[in-house]
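Because discrete structure vocabularies remain unfamiliar, we turn briefly to a single example record, giving the amino acid sequence and backbone structure tokens:
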Amino acid sequence: MFFLSIVRTATGTPHAMQQRIPTLLSLLLCLCIAGCATTEGVSEPSLDEEGESPLVIEMPVVGTGEAAADAQDEAEPDVAAAGEEAEDDERPAPTVLMAPRVPGGLPEVVVEARARHEQIRDLVREGQSRLRAIDLEYVFTGKGRSEVLRGRPVAFSLWSEKAGEWITAHLEIPRPPVRWRPGRNPLPFRLLTPGIEARHVKGTGAERLMFSFSRDGEPLKVYGRKFPVFDSTLLKRKQWRAVAATARPLIYLPFTADTLDPRFVTGGREFLMETARKAGQELRAASAPSRAFPGQWLADVIPAEVIATLAVIEQTDPADYRRDGQEAFDQVLSQYGLKREEAYRHSVSSAAALGAMQFTNRRGNGTYAMVVRRCPQARLDPDFERGATNLLNAMKAAICLLDIELAQMPSEIRQAYRADPAVLGIFPVAAYNGGPRNVAKLSRVLKRMKVGLDELRRVGEMPPDTSIDCPCVWREDATGVRPVAIPRYNNENRWYIEKYQSILGSLE
């Protein structure tokens, strides 16, 4: 925060100064709102949530249509819209304090500006509130039995710093979804709002679809987006009018650089740890036993920081991490800090994994259903969509799954894990990402590297002028704690372990 003191000048009068205060307050407020252009968000794999086969359809591209180099597609489930009702003010009001009188008799006026993260919250609430009153326009082409829904309408709530006003941008993206990949053909779209320019940044679905906007050279800030989810049954029946009439609009805000703030990063870390601890407490209160370690409580087997770590690395794209390192984690943590329980509810992978913890369904026989059956004392929500999109419930399910995976591992791994759950967490985490097969591969790789389980350590400081090419594990020998490159056995799993080790320390 900062303070501005306004005092009477030698020649000014109290009445004149009081007349100037509102103007000065307005000028100060305009300077307080942080300004940076909307940039690309976080990527994820693609999936058509409506069961349609993705394809590329030719559409006129308005604006540049240029894709960000690291984005990927995704699609979303049928879940509740995010956001809260906002106050009527378009901008957050500063706090005005009357300080003691200065020599001469006029009281000193102190204007206390709101912190940036508070301003962002207010703008997000206002932007999303405005979208609730906005109707999405559906366009049909053809006649009779040849009639089809042309595309998917999407609306964005934009703020102009220069004009001090809100703008609603309407555009239309392809339907069925396009299997778009960064660096290839740009995503085709129709911009339906005149006077502004749009550029596709990344994503195609409800979690990460993002565009950047500008008007007359001014970057416009995105503070909300309205995205309709269609009924898959009606889509299959090609009942296009009914599809539009029953569409469920999700009001949400994918990641943008305009909402990245250190307070949200810290708040996201605290929120995840708080939720993970609560998940453990509820499992302990339910007397849920461990399968991996009979006679012990499930909540005592899996540390909270391991579960919080999973909530971050599941939403951090490997390409983003390789390019940006800790900044990629900070973007994810900032989303949790800003949106808390709503963050990543709409995230769906190419394997139809849903929610922050990325559980699968597979027609009722996926990983989530297995955990519900094999961990009855956890009292998990039996409904897949509700359970996978509720972060607290999903974290309890993740604790159960890690314990189930540990129970299937060799005794030497389980014993080493009990001695140091965080470091040896690479094994249950590898299983979480790719199943028991990857655990066996990782174990064989470590033996081939001649790295003993008791030698594994936390991530240390990379030696100067090192030629080690990570992903790595860290081992302790007579020279200290050193990185050892993990040979190729499954590239995705290697980077998953690397992400786990890198973020773990900051969540403890």
In short: Residues 34-91+115-257 form one domain.
